[in-house]
Amino acid sequence: MPILDWMTREADVRAAAGVPYRLLEGVPALDGGDAAAGNMLIQGDNLDALKALLPYYKGAVKCIYIDPPYNTRSAFDHYDDNLEHSQWLAMIYPRLVLLRDLLAENGSIWVSIDDNEGHYLKVVMDEVFGRRNFITNVIWHKMFSVKNSAQYFSEDHDYITVYAKNADAWRPNELARSEKQDSMYKNPDNDPRGPWTSGDFSARNFYGAGTYPVTTPSGRVIPGPPPGMYWRFSATKLEELKADNRIWWGKDGNGVPRLKRFLSEVKGGRVPQTIWQHADVGHTQEAKKEVVALNSEDVFGTPKPERLMQRVLHIASNPGDLVLDSFLGSGTTAAVAHKMGRRWIGIEMGDHAETHCKPRLDKVIAGEQGGISEAVGWTGGGGYRFYRLGAPVFDADGHITDGIRFTTLAAHVWFSETGAPFTGAADTPILGVHDGMAYCLLYNGILGDRSVSGGNVLTAALLAKLRADSGWVGPMTIYGEWCKLGAARLAEAGVTFKQTPYDVRAR
Ligand SMILES: C[S@@+](CC[C@H](N)C(=O)[O-])C[C@H]1O[C@@H](n2cnc3c(N)ncnc32)[C@H](O)[C@@H]1O
């Protein structure tokens, strides 16, 4: 497969693996509403924040939407084309790698972009997500009016590049049918099944049984289907359809047969299309108005309209699903996800995490009525926890940093052993069982003073307790500070002992 090359590619491709795991430290004073609702607003560089989320949320996110900086010339005082493009690719590549790992098997990622980097992004995403998982490039008609000051063309659209984690497992939710679409269905013969429209009874596909003559209700004989075409159904099936009043012969009963299709029988919605008009999903001015209404003194520069995010989240997630935006900006994705009953994680490194996202989400929780609120019947509720990035979990030599709590190390041990996110309560040394192996962690006095060294040393008594408490008789991997059992005794007991901190993989 062709791949894109740039100045720092080699290092950038490996960058995600080298990012240290850091702690996410709660800032309770900045929590909003019901902090236990499960939503997270994180202030910090998303490279670190995404890595910090991995041990807990790997494979758990249903929909990722990101709106990274587009890398327009205006962003730089001294624009060096080659350098700036490389920097942008260096920025996006490792983040996409981490986002891929966070995405659920039936999840999708949506990236807003324009022509500055859009085509480079496509090639990089082909590499990271697999070309076969490319779904589409949505074109968002974002401008309400023409920009006559444009040097060449007035740019009317952005793209939203969409990939599934696994295109075989992902399906879009359909959109609601529009009134205009429904109005095409009429009921000229007062059929008790309600309004209908008619479709061709003939098609180009070869059908051996589809070439018979047909007699119309008024007695005219049609010798066969139109030249080069075949009736869609056999003569026997046509008789059944006639008996069920599913054939339309035209007002005078003398036309070629057509098949009636009832509105009540068409499937629920309409398949999403690739061009999104601003009349349906909002435009840049609408987005501006929304953020001005929320904060008129310090207006965020590049927001997306709530209706655009509503469309994305409608297609790509269901109530209760986890949605992630790691370039949160003014907080649009989180606000819309919240109003639509999705769980969300938003990451923003700028000060506006606190000055814009937080106030916006607090207003949403209080029942703010802008954006999509009326359309979804939003009346308020819910909440989130505010986090900042803390110290690395492991130091440069891979040693566990002082002060790391049991819950943190438990998640890292579990994740590094199983590759799965840790969802346990971390209130016992028994972390869980994965693929026929139980994992235990003796650390930081999790067992209090009931055992040697506050419970960090594996003894025969402690092993018996772990067996009894877990009820698990199969193989066990136990992390601890020290082990008092010999190799033969461990082998006999089906236990692999790993020593903290040395055997805990830091990457
Ligand atoms: C185009 S804005 C997103 C706008 C957003 N969609 C909205 O509706 O408000 C991009 C945001 O990404 C943030 N950002 C850029 N690099 C980042 C990084 N490495 N980590 C976290 N946030 C970052 C910027 O501070 C900016 O707020």
Please give a quick description of this structure.
This protein is an alpha/beta fold.
Overview of the structural elements:
There is one protein chain. Helices cover 30% and strands 22% of the residues. α1 packs parallel to α3 (81-102), α2 packs parallel to α3 and α9 crosses α10. With 507 residues, the protein is an alpha/beta fold. The model has no long low-confidence stretch (mean pLDDT 92). The chain has helices at residues 9-18, 46-57, 81-102, 118-129, 179-182, 235-243, 278-281, 284-294, 306-316, 332-339, 352-365, 373-376, 406-418, 460-470, 487-493, and strands at residues 22-26, 32-33, 40-43, 61-66, 103-113, 134-141, 157-164, 196-200, 202-203, 214-215, 221-222, 230-231, 247-248, 258-262, 275-276, 322-325, 343-348, 383-392, 430-434, 437-441, 457-458, 476-480, 482-483, 495-499. The longest helix has 22 residues, at 81-102. Strands 1, 2, 3, 4, 5, 6, 7, 15, 16, 17 and 18 form an 11-stranded mixed β-sheet that branches. A 4-stranded mixed β-sheet has the order 19-20-22-24, sandwiched between helices. It has a 3-stranded antiparallel β-sheet with strand order 8-14-13. β10 and β11 form a beta hairpin. It is built from 15 helices and 24 strands. The chain has 3 domains: 9-176 and 271-391, Vaccinia Virus protein VP39 (Rossmann fold, 3-Layer(aba) Sandwich); 179-265, no CATH class; 406-499, no CATH class. S-adenosylmethionine (SAM) is lined by residues 45-46, 67, 69, 300, 302-304, 327, 329-330, 332, 347-350.
